[in-house]
Amino acid sequence: MNFSWMAWTLPTALFFLTILLLLVGMSIWEYFAPGGAPRVGLLRFETTRGDRLFISLLGAAFIHLAWLGLVGPNLWWALALSILYAVIVFRTV
Amino acid sequence: MEKTWNNKAWFLVLPVLLLVAFSAVIPLMTVVNYSVQDTFGNNQFFWAGTDWFDDILHSDRFWQALQRNLLFSFIILALEIPLGIFIALNMPRKGIGVSVCLVLMALPLLIPWNVVGTIWQVFGRVDIGLLGRTLAILGVDYNYVRDPIDAWITVIVMDVWHWTSLVVLLCYAGLVSIPDAYYQAAKIDGASRFSVFRYIQLPKMKRVLLIAVLLRFMDSFMIYTEPFVVTGGGPGNSTTFLSIDLVKMAVGQFDLGPAAAMSIVYFLIILLLSWVFYTVMTSRDAEN
Q1: Is residue B7 part of a domain?
Q2: B273-B279-B284 Cα angle (round to 5)
Q3: Which among A49, B60, B183, B243 has the fewest CB atoms less than 10 Å away?
Q4: What is the ipTM of this complex?
């Protein structure tokens, strides 16, 4: 099967592979600790760890866009900020 | 009783997963791939990095279309939700009137988007349209082809005409599911008409209203066909919403890279706003 029309590149393949690994990791986590660990955190509504991953990924996308729009095209700092943001979300939200 | 764990049931979800993969995930992956490259056709691509995102984020054209879209969605929700509730509250609950009202309400929903656009395009024309000609005879200076405000009014009224029925039907379904005992209790307590609405009907309609708000927001934010058929995005760019701009860029100009970058930003905004709507409304529901 020819997938050349999908125009794959190494960076985008790595990006999707990371997302896939995150989902697999979350599934393994859920297998060993079922229930999703629901809790009411900083945002004052109940979130499971799946919700917290969603908030982290969505926030990371906007952090990258904001960095690109306001600072410049070097996105390594945006990535570091996104990881920090995800850690904060998983600990406090 | 001990819970039985049977993970074989997951295989039943496989067909849906495959369907979603082919209809959503693979196209989304392709759009992401296109957004970081440039192409001149013939399946040849050149790495562009984040250039297209940079262009989109610094483009006045994008921000203006986004502002128009947000304003349009706000107006649509502000009109259709209260109007839908009002009509649903006043619809009959018994007798032949129920069927008549339900059929009348369902009719606009059965008409395809492009046909609705064509109907309103002709309806509003000053030379031959029933609405346009009548307004001209009455001395009202109305011309949606020339005046941006008239174009906005036409597109908004058209959307209200087309989609308020959906809100009505959802609210009506919520209203008829309220048991009579609630109304009897309110009557014994001497509750006013407003109190019945505020403390019985509105809370009971919350879930269907959540669906109505989400559906109408997403639909109005992604609107394309109707304004495209009626105004073509004009006059000028006054009714060029994000989707119209996106199609102009991707199909009209064949700028696939910038169009893909714009699609991703557009998708992220819809995802964020839908999540905010859903979370706010469901968390309030949980509090209650």
Answers
A1: no
A2: 135
A3: B60
A4: 0.92
Find the residue in B nearest to A5 (Cα): B43
* pLDDT tens, residue by residue, B104-161: 999 999 999 999 999 999 999 999 999 999 999 999 999 999 999 999 999 999 999 9
Is B45 an interface residue toward A (CB < 8 Å)?
yes
Which of chain A's residues have a Cβ under 8 Å away from the Cβ of B285?
none
Beta strands in B91-150 (DSSP E): none
* Amino acid found at B215: L
Tokens of B111: 């008409």
Q: Contact at 8 Å (CB) between A90 and A60?
A: no
- Count how many domains chain B has: 1
Find the CATH number of the domain harbouring B180.
1.10.3720.10
Are B29 and A68 an interchain contact pair (Cβ–Cβ within 8 Å)? no
Angstroms from B170 CA to nearest CA on chain A:
26
Determine, yes or no, domain membership for B146. Answer: yes
Q: What is the pTM of this model?
A: 0.85
pLDDT of residue B78: 97
User: Does the pLDDT of residue B274 top 60, yes or no?
Assistant: yes
User: Which two tokens mark A29?
Assistant: 């986590």
